[in-house]
Design brief:
- The structure holds 3 protein chains of 3 kinds.
- Chain A has 10 helices and no strands.
- Chain A is an all-alpha fold.
- Chain A starts with a helix and ends in a 6-residue tail after the last helix.
- By secondary structure, chain B is of the alpha/beta class.
- Chain B folds into 2 domains: 137 residues, P-loop containing nucleotide triphosphate hydrolases (Rossmann fold); 66 residues, no CATH class.
- A 6-stranded mixed β-sheet of chain B has the order 6-7-8-3-9-10, sandwiched between helices. In chain B, strands 2-1-4-5 form a 4-stranded antiparallel β-sheet, with helices on one face.
- Chain B is globular.
- In chain C, helix 4 crosses helix 10.
- Classes of the chains: A mainly alpha, B alpha/beta, C mainly alpha.
Chain lengths: 252, 265, 244
């Protein structure tokens, strides 16, 4: 049997084994049904929601909210980061202050946002945007600062204007670091979306999980977790595909 | 020992360095990278500057290029003081991996110089092809720099600097990171290129033999502080060959003469 | 202007104009407070023990979670690293679990453990296990073959090889994963506290906001940033010690 096929089957078998074990543990009563639904319950809950449409609307809500905050933040961070990263003065004046905020947990801005916006969708979008901004901003600045001296000097020897230099040399050079920042910010955006949904009872995947727990519907809770996991995986995979496309030249 | 035929018409000086110094601090903290360097480079001349590490030869080259400024003295290019880097003064760096754009192919990298100059697309294509042919890079035209050997990458750098149509090429230990065989191959390619195009080259190296092999003139820099210890005309016929020239009595004599100078300082 | 002056020029100017704006009534103190007030709130919080107490609560949860994550991550990581087959077999399960943001488990954790330390610690543990697991697996998988050859050339026995070559080589890479995990631990703990768990720094910030003690809220944020810087600095120090 071909190794690739063998591996896939082995992985499938193992996964199935885990699911069976999980089912068994609950059926037999080793774990209280209240805390742990069986996989069959969880998956049928998912199927039910998929058919009734509630699954898709929840996914859409979360996706929209996340996208709104993340995209705005990324665009802003790229522009600002490009400006700061390419100006030695701006870099020296601003970067230390910006670095100060790096270790601050993004979720810490939630109370401030609640103060200003209350428990609303605006609060959520603000938190998501604010949190997503920092990793991209800092990574962008860093990427520009890290452009090899030789490349910069080649550009000045070729008498490139600043804008042309940024577009043809600096930005592609920085793109690796920028992409790393995007990955981090995307994961963070998902977390903040889920947290703010739970906090403000906004419709979405996080909210579904939250409500399921409150109403002791354990099947729905696990269904929500699985759905969220799938969503998260899909989103990060999309970014990976984009990276492979855009950074096709990167040597691994 | 200058052996310049008197009947030769005075050639134009493209680079003139007058009492160039790079000195930091004063008194006890005074650190002189190099002091009081003066020399001229004629149009079409292949000048090699040789010295051990720390003599400031790279700094000097960068000042000629306009990337740095000396603390005192003047460097003139084409009669004008050097203010900043320009297309006229092409630079070939030692670290080729950092000097080429990793996301562009070989053709793309060479084309960069032409794009900036605003050359029309078809003209770019033709010129790039010419250079690819000239530098033996045709088979690698669509490859990325990371897929090439060091020697090939350095050829790309040279091709790109030629695309600039510079008046002078400044090379900072360009073959230093290459293995001995590739180095010799590239030395000969460079030699041929320089002769064909009557290129003016300032070539920095720590390898005395390389300097003597390639140069019309060799300047020896001492270190601590850097200063010109000796300037000689290399009276060896061209084209030079790896085996014959290196066994030539004049070559050996010059080698002995200069070897002592580098070792001492 | 020297580099260090440049670094503080803008923040200093901002703080000053903020303070002045508060004086002239240009800004709403109920939302923005003022630097002097925030400073006082911060000093008060530190001296009366509340900041230190809540910090300790958060750190407790972070350490609790890190300890579990270290044990589970290293053990499973070693197993997966040694057997390429097991790594591949378990990949779908591992990747699926890893895709779920740890905070999503907060309601479940609440259900299982109720409010308090274990609930938070378990979520931290979940979040921190993955970086440790992945780096351990990679470390075990990629022990430099030269080192093994050296151990063979030096005719080491198995015990010597494990203790002198394998463990040190693996540990240095595992520590990189640990660094990431430590970064996560603090953030995850604070997030859980902000969301639902009534203990620690996160809860402190939320309470300050809810009781409209805005100055205390901002003071907490500054303290959190300082804490984060301190943790990073410690980690970097540990790195240097190790490299020395």
């Amino acid at each position: 049997m071909r190794p690739a096929l063998y591996n896939t089957l082995a992985a499938a078998a193992f996964t199935l084994l885990v699911l069976i074990l999980w089912q068994f543990v609950v059926e037999v009563g080793l774990v209280n049904r209240l805390f742990l639904a069986t996989p069959s319950q969880a998956f049928s809950a998912i199927a039910e929601r998929a058919l009734s449409g509630t699954l898709w609307s929840a996914v859409l809500e979360t996706a929209q909210r996340m996208a709104a905050g993340w995209v705005v933040a990324v665009l802003f961070a790229l522009l600002l980061g490009t400006a700061i990263g390419n100006s030695e003065n701006a870099h020296q004046f601003l970067s230390p202050t910006l670095e100060f905020f790096r270790p601050l947990p993004a979720s810490a801005v939630i109370p401030v946002a609640v103060l200003f916006f209350g428990l609303t969708a605006t609060m959520s979008t603000f938190v998501i945007a604010f949190g997503s901004l920092w990793p991209v901003l800092l990574a962008t600045i860093y990427g520009y600062v890290k452009v090899p001296r030789e490349l910069r000097e080649v550009a000045s020897t070729l008498e490139m204007g600043k804008l042309r230099y940024i577009a043809t040399v600096a930005f592609p050079s920085a793109s690796i670091d920028i992409m790393a920042g995007l990955r981090i910010s995307l994961a963070l955006a998902l977390i903040l979306t889920v947290v703010t949904e739970m906090q403000a009872s906004l419709p979405g995947l996080g909210y579904e999980i939250f409500m399921a727990q409150r109403t002791f519907r354990s099947a729905d809770l696990y269904a929500g977790l699985i759905t969220l996991g799938a969503f998260g995986y899909l989103v990060s995979h999309l970014l990976l595909l984009a990276e492979r496309r855009l950074l096709w030249w990167k040597s691994p | 020992m200058k052996l310049r035929a008197v009947a030769q018409a005075p050639a134009e000086n493209i680079v003139e360095a007058e009492h160039v110094s790079m000195v930091f601090g004063t008194g006890d903290t005074r650190h002189a990278v190099f002091e009081d360097i003066s020399f001229e480079v004629r149009l079409g001349e292949f000048l090699c500057i040789v010295g051990s590490s720390g003599c400031g030869k790279t700094t000097l080259l960068r000042q000629i290029a306009g990337l740095q400024k000396p603390t005192s003295g003047t460097i003139r290019f084409n009669g004008e003081p050097v203010a900043k880097p320009t297309l006229d003064k092409a630079i070939v760096f030692q670290d080729y991996s950092k000097a080429l754009l990793p996301w562009r192919t070989v053709s793309g990298n060479i084309a960069l110089a032409l794009e900036v100059a605003g050359t029309p697309k078809d003209a770019i294509k033709t010129e790039v092809n010419d250079l690819l042919l000239k530098m033996g890079l045709l088979p690698a035209a669509e490859k990325l720099p990371a897929q090439l050997s060091g020697g090939m990458q350095q050829r790309v750098q040279i091709a790109r600097s030629l695309a600039q149509r510079p008046k002078i090429i400044l090379m900072d230990e360009p073959f230093g990171a290459l293995d001995a065989i590739t180095r010799q191959v590239l030395q000969d390619e460079l030699q041929t290129l320089a002769r064909e195009r009557n290129m003016t080259v300032i070539f920095i190296t720590h390898d005395l033999e390389e300097a003597l092999y390639l140069g019309d003139t060799v300047i020896v820099l001492a270190s601590n502080p850097g200063r010109i210890v000796k300037q000689i005309d290399v009276d060896l016929a061209r084209p030079r060959r790896q085996l014959e020239t290196r066994e030539n009595p004049t070559f050996l004599r010059l080698r002995h003469e200069l070897h002592g100078l580098i070792g001492k300082h | 202007m020297s580099r260090s002056w440049r670094a503080i020029a803008i923040p200093a100017a901002l703080l000053l104009s903020w303070e002045i704006a508060a004086d002239t009534g240009w800004i709403d103190l109920e939302f923005l407070s003022r630097p002097s007030q925030i400073l006082i709130a911060g000093i008060t919080g530190l001296t009366d023990g509340t900041f230190l107490f809540t910090t300790w609560q958060t750190l407790e949860a972070a350490l609790f979670g890190l300890a579990i994550a270290l044990v589970v991550g290293v053990l499973v990581g070693i197993v997966l690293g040694l057997s390429r087959f097991s790594e591949m077999m378990s990949r779908p399960v591992v990747e699926s679990l890893r895709s779920i943001p740890s905070i999503a488990f907060a309601p479940l954790s609440l259900l299982l453990f109720g409010f308090g330390l274990p609930m938070e610690g378990m979520i931290v543990a979940y979040a921190c296990t993955w970086p440790i697991l992945i780096t351990t697996t990679a470390a075990v998988r990629h022990i430099e073959p030269r080192l093994i050859e050296v151990s063979q050339a030096l005719e080491m026995n198995s015990f010597q090889r494990v203790t002198k070559i394998i463990v040190p080589a693996v540990m240095s890479r595992v520590l990189v994963g640990l660094r990431t995990a430590v970064g996560f631990a603090l953030v995850v703990a604070v997030t859980v506290e902000i969301l639902i768990n009534p203990r620690g720094l996160g809860y402190g910030v939320m309470i300050a906001q809810q009781s409209l003690k805005v100055d205390v809220m901002y003071a907490y944020l500054v303290w959190l940033a300082l804490l984060g810087i301190a943790v990073n600095a410690l980690l970097r120090l540990a790195d240097r010690e190790r490299a020395a």
